[in-house]
Amino acid sequence: MRTAALRSPPPARAIIVSRQRLIGATNGSSSYVIDLARSARAAGLEPVLWQPTPNVMGRIPLYRARPEMAVFTEHRIRGVARIGRWFVSTDPGVWRDAAIGAARSLARRVGLKGDWTRDRPRPYTIAAPWSAADRAWLSAQVLRPEDVVLADYAFQSEAFALLGAPRARSAIIMHDLFHRRAGSGAGAERDSVTALSREAEVALLERAGTVIAIQQDEADFVAGALPETRVILAPGTRTPEAPQTAPGDPHRLLFVGSRTAPNSDGLAWFLERVWPAIAAAASTTRLDVVGTVAADFVGARVPDGVRLHGLVPQLAPFYARAGIVIAPLRFGSGLKIKLVEALAWGKPMVVSPVTLQGVEEACGPAVMVADSPGGFAAAILALQKDGALRERLSQAARAAVAAHFAPAGTHRAYREWLQEAAKGSTGAGTLLPPDMRAAISCFQ
């Protein structure tokens, strides 16, 4: 008689259902999802990424996932073939739109004008209505009894019913409170999700047993609006970069951002209203614009001294060269990942009040805040002239990151919830854990 070998059960999975393009840590929202996936792995769960719509490809017919995407043990996109780290769209329309987009971009670069050259991105899939094919694909996926399901944004909360996920094992990665995103920026009206009302957003959040909030103000809102829902505060995590990081050139500014309405509006405001005063007072000043936000300025008249780099393989060289980082956002919500990232590099920053929302106590002492064109320019010029001020802000930046954004403490409540949910020992009705407030005192 042969005895069958005993097999240990497979680990629980933290299944993230997402409809944003996830190539790597290329923008704030992608970085945050990857951050949460790393913490899920640290909690003993396997991070899995399911994407039920092929529209996440946008106009990119193929891409190679960045190394940080290896945190996911499984990554599948409906209607997209995967070959190693490469994802290839099987939709001919994507390839057609990519060719048209490239032609329009080339036309703008050589100075051609006309409506036909205007860029026409594909719809923003995060908030787009679910299609019947999206629902059918996700409904066909099979959950294990111990799996935990996380919806990437409240718009994906429909996934819980499609998968049959128990309330105790379902959570929404909130990212932002969208009904609070409206602001003074002229680009606010083209923010694709600002039309979401408070009532509609609360209704979406109510579908989950747990909501994961990125900053304290938004966690407090959900706790008050949905007292039967558990709220976990889990800001994005960072660790300070090496202390010997070069201070950079104070006449070299840096703006990092993805192609979103808040970033495009903030940069346009800075170039139009702030840059002329800086160029007049300190003509050797240069501004590097890094990230996909640069696509909104191709073909436009960019001032002398401003260089558009687009998406780059590594941010480290740009942070090393920069002496000052700017974040002039005029509307938006959530925790601005670009803020924490620049602080981790120990960079002096000039930011708007919107950039600082939700982390004023934690990060306020480490940055200069300005809300007018004159104030923004004056702060930059003051930093350029005062090396001692730059050094004080640099030290304060590193201290803020070490104290308030270290992974061990910042995501402890989130990791504990994952472990409890996978064991079936948690449910709704638990408010923000008191020990989380003590561990992250800056958010109180």
Give an overview of the whole structure.
By secondary structure, the chain is an alpha/beta fold. It contains 15 helices and 16 strands. It has helices at residues 28-42, 92-109, 132-139, 158-163, 198-205, 216-225, 261-281, 316-321, 337-344, 360-363, 373-385, 387-404, 407-410, 412-423, 434-439; strands at 13-17, 46-51, 62-64, 74-77, 80-83, 86-89, 148-152, 170-173, 210-213, 230-233, 249-256, 286-290, 306-310, 322-327, 349-351, 368-369. It has a seven-stranded parallel β-sheet with strand order 4-2-1-7-8-9-10. Strands 13-12-11-14-15-16 form a six-stranded parallel β-sheet, sandwiched between helices. Helix 7 (261-281) crosses helix 11 (373-385) and helix 9 crosses helix 12 (387-404). The radius of gyration is 22 Å and the shape is globular. The protein starts with 12 loop residues before the first strand and ends in a 5-residue tail after the last helix.
Helix content: 25-40%
Number of strands: 16
Radius of gyration: 22 Å
Low-confidence stretches: 184-189, 426-444
What's the multimeric state?
single chain
Shape: globular
Mean of the pLDDT scores?
Answer: 86
Structural class: alpha/beta
Largest sheet: 7 strands, parallel
Major β-sheet strand ordering: 4-2-1-7-8-9-10
- Terminal Cα separation, in Å? 64 Å
User: How many distinct helices?
Assistant: 15
Q: In percent, how much strand structure appears in the residues?
A: 15-25%
